[in-house]
């Protein structure tokens, strides 16, 4: 097909007044090759499993899960269980923020704890040292985490594959070692801040009741998941998915891959910073563990098990695995090995995670049923519910 024929093909999946999506995003001057255009526009058209009764079933399960979580405190659980779930909600939001970079954009990062820890330390330093009120400090912490993500994205955007993982891992570990090895402040009366002991966060409400922290963290999880889902379904999110699926085709089409990858790091780090500010409010202290390798592996493992790029899958996996691993009471080194082993096994044998594997199994079962029906009709057998 001639290049001019690409511009005269009928557009698939028009959404706004018959204007093609690639023209909405880039303007009339950008005319991508057919392969990349179809990849991008196929994401606009809902798949068979994304409509009708399947969507209602998934929405029903999601609503039922949220309803159970809302009603759970009414069963009068102990404070420890509420604390585990509250922390799980915050880690689930953190895992969803990782999915923006590692799932939607396809840039697997092993240093996502950097914006998270930057936000917790910003909350601690601004409230304790500068005397800022916590809401203002939390807003500044999110901005700092976003700036950190922009810096990491600037360095990582030209890279791909394991090079991104190594770079982000090195940056986060450098920050972790600095935070763990230096008591860089002295509090009143000669009290050392920093190091492994961390820095306390000044909270206006003191020790909040466990049930209040529970509902606040649950509301934050719902809002952050909704925001990330909105971004993943936006035009930028769709382009990011297409770029992750075929970067060479996107680059040949004139797509500024680096700019979109930087955008993914910025958005993912902003949500990670919000989760870090929430974690600082819940725990009341910023520690070196907020920048640890374990936390980065947690987010990557939760997203890989739940299904990278699905957003909701990492959230569900984070809640389940956090509760499971918390009950094992393993030392930190053993937990890192457990997360790393789970991540490697999932990426090797179940690259689509639980959600992707379930979709593949369902597709195979449907294909087998169709093949059996075709053989029965060719053999003269009556299909179920019909006559020969």
Summarize the structure.
The protein is 69% helix and 2% strand.
Which SSEs are present, and which pair or pack?
Elements: H1 3-8, H2 21-26, H3 34-42, H4 53-71, H5 79-104, H6 113-128, H7 134-156, H8 162-181, E1 185-186, E2 192-193, E3 199-200, H9 210-232, H10 235-245, H11 247-252, H12 257-283, E4 285-286, H13 293-306, H14 312-328, H15 332-349, H16 353-378
Helix pairs in contact: 5-9, 5-12, 5-13, 5-14, 6-7, 6-12, 7-12, 9-12, 10-12, 13-14, 13-15, 13-16
Describe this structure in words.
The chain is mostly helical. It has one domain (about 35-40, about 75-350): ABC transporter involved in vitamin B12 uptake, BtuC (Orthogonal Bundle), CATH 1.10.3470. The chain is built from 16 helices and four strands. The strands form two sheets. A two-stranded antiparallel ribbon has the order 1-2. A two-stranded antiparallel ribbon has the order 3-4. Helix 13 (about 295-305) packs parallel to helix 15 (about 330-350). The chain is globular, with a radius of gyration of 24 Å. The model is unreliable at about 1-20 and about 45-55 (pLDDT under 50).
Number of strands: 4
Tell me the major beta sheet.
2 strands, antiparallel
Using the coordinates shown, work out and report the CATH topology.
ABC transporter involved in vitamin B12 uptake, BtuC
CATH class: Mainly Alpha
Largest sheet, spatial ordering of strands: 1-2
Alpha carbon gap, first and last residue: 45 Å
- Mean pLDDT rating: 81
CATH architecture: Orthogonal Bundle
Radius of gyration: 24 Å
Task: Give the number of domains.
Answer: 1
Strand content: under 5%
The total count of helices amounts to 16
Give the low-confidence spans.
Answer: 1-19, 44-54
Helix content: 55-70%
Shape: globular
Structural class by SSE content: mainly alpha
Instruction: Report the order of strands and helices.
Output: HHHHHHHHEEEHHHHEHHHH
């Amino acid at each position: 097909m001639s290049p001019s024929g690409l511009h005269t093909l009928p557009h698939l999946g028009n959404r706004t007044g018959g204007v093609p999506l690639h023209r909405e995003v880039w303007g009339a001057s950008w005319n991508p090759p057919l392969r990349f255009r179809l990849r991008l526009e196929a994401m606009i058209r809902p798949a068979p499993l994304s409509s009708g009764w399947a969507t209602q079933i998934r929405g029903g399960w999601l609503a039922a899960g949220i309803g159970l979580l809302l009603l759970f405190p009414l069963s009068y659980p102990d404070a420890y269980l509420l604390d585990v779930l509250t922390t799980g909600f915050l880690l689930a939001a953190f895992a969803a923020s990782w999915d923006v970079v590692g799932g939607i954009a396809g840039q697997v990062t092993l240093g996502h704890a950097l914006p998270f820890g930057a936000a917790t330390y910003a909350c601690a330093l601004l409230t304790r040292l500068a005397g800022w009120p916590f809401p203002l400090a939390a807003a500044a912490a999110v901005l700092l985490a976003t700036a950190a993500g922009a810096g990491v994205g600037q360095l990582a955007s030209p890279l791909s594959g394991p090079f991104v993982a190594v770079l982000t891992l090195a940056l986060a570990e450098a920050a972790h070692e600095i935070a763990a090895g230096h008591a860089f402040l002295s509090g009143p009366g000669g009290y050392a801040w920093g190091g492994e002991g961390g820095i306390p966060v000044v909270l206006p409400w003191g020790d909040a009741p466990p049930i209040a922290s529970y509902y606040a963290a649950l509301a934050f999880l719902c809002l952050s998941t909704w925001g990330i889902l909105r971004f993943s379904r936006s035009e930028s999110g769709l382009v990011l998915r297409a770029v992750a699926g075929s970067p060479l085709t996107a680059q040949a089409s004139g797509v500024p891959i680096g700019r979109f990858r930087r955008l993914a790091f910025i958005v993912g780090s902003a949500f990670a910073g919000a989760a870090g500010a929430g974690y600082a409010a819940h725990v009341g202290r910023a520690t070196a563990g907020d920048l640890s390798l374990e936390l980065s592996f947690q987010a990557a493992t939760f997203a890989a098990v739940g299904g990278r790029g699905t957003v909701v899958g990492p959230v569900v996996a984070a809640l389940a695995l956090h509760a499971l691993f918390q009950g094992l009471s393993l030392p930190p080194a053993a937990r890192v090995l457990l997360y790393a082993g789970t991540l490697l096994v999932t990426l090797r044998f179940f690259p689509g995670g639980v959600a992707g594997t379930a979709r593949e199994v369902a597709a195979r079962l449907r294909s087998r049923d169709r093949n059996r029906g075709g053989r029965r009709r060719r053999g003269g057998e009556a299909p179920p519910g019909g006559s020969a």
